[in-house]
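Quality-control log, excerpt.
Job 1 of 2 completed; input and output follow.
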Amino acid sequence: MHRHQTVLLFGPPGSGKGTQGRILGDIPGYYHCACGDVFRRLDPNTELGQTFLSYSSRGELVPDEVTVKIWHAHIKKVEAVGAYKSHSDLLILDGIPRNVEQAKLLDEELEVLRLINLACPDEEAMIERLRRRALKENRADDAKEDVIRHRWDVYRAETQHVLDHYPAEMISEVNAQNSPAEVLRDVLDIVIPIQTAHYRRLAAEGQTA
């Protein structure tokens, strides 16, 4: 079974996963998939869209199996239209897996080449950054400190444990509290050699990127 050659962007709320992922996604040879965007763009008239709404409308979390199924359907769709060339593009994922169970379910689909952990050593500074960002983007509910702290509590209780699912040598840490340009530089230092090795492997197999 073909497994997607993948780099995971990982980190707590506000660490810049989406920002870095979008930048990488604009570079040839990378395809960025943000799970949050996948959920927001679900067609409510489809079976998966209706399944998602049946949970979200009740304020319930979508089960892990359904989350992975929705992600899988999206990947198949972008492959079918040629937006993502799975044989040659590196898949840049953020927002999934959100917990260890999702990571286990995705093991069959992903060959994770590297996990980039966008670390935030100063939690209070990051909470203030999230508050300012929400106000700037006119998302008043997201600017509430108790809402932000709850998101961090969920990250610590569930998502952070995903780091234990992958071998330590697969994980690279980047300080997400540096400037966005510095973070991008550090991320590129990690992913460029991965892409180079990937292209060399394709060439050795007689394939083209």
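Job 2 of 2 completed; input and output follow.
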Amino acid sequence: MLIVPGLNDSGPAHWQSWLQAQYRDARRVEQRDWTDPALDRWASRVGSTIERHGGEWIAVAHSFGCLALARHLLLHPGSGVRAALFVAPAEPDRFGVAALLPDGRLPVPSTVVASDNDPWMSVASTRRWAQRWGSAWLTLGEAGHINAESGFGPLPLARRWVTAMGARLAAERRPDHAELAEWSFAV
């Protein structure tokens, strides 16, 4: 699992930190400057983290990290990201980066999780971006920015999504028919 935090990183009480601790092979994208939302630089750090560790990833992003992940997917559709969870995305227009984000379906299955009273992006805007990206969409109701300040340390929904998506991706990799040697245990 790849954790993609937003501005100011996700501190120890944040649900992303809780989720990362649930998976021993989870990695976090580290930004050089957590206070400077430079979209291409942030997207590049997503890519360099994937390259450094290799393999395939289920990415879990929050706030401005959602925009960085979406930009990465636009620029590198064949990267190791196999699925994406976008939680409480930041409003792209607030940062002047809407034109730099995908204008169509993302190359991986994805879900956008919103809040009805998120100060960083309206629920209507999250729905529009989810539709544009071909993402599943859901709202947690009045959940603020879905961060520690809003009362979200653990976020079991995110863990269930990661588990379900991991199972789905594993099932897609299985062959339709097993080779005879794979059944040797039954002899």
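Post-run check on job 2. The chain has one domain: 2-186.
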